[in-house]
Amino acid sequence: MSKNIYNEFQMKELEKNPNVLRASERSISYSSEFKTKAVTEYKSGKTPSQIFIEQGFDLEMIGKEQPKRCLKRWRETFERFGEEGFLTERRGKGSTGRPSSKQLSIEEKLRKAEARIKFLEAENDFLKKLEELERQALKKKRF
To answer: What positions belong to coiled-coil segments (predicted)?
Structure first.
């Protein structure tokens, strides 16, 4: 996130750019198409500032370091998740959590459920013993 604070006029100007989904006082949300294109152009040898200027951004408004920070984040996302990384939301309440790498077989599900049952039974036994110890300690206090 940039340290810039945008005023109403700057937010409206930013939102005129087709590569911007929305702009708030503190942040700019870029389109996934722009992110993909920027990463591709960066890999072909263009600088982050050059990419942003060619796409109609005013570096004086968004900050000279903003393109470099954005491209760094986007490259990491692209290398990790591919183009799909820009299309899905992986943060907050909209997130469905870590994607499962594989579907569990019925045997694996059963094994997992049995292990959980075993854990919960052990937890119950522990809590029963703890309650008994607390009762005994309370009895000793009374006498």
So the answer is: 103-130
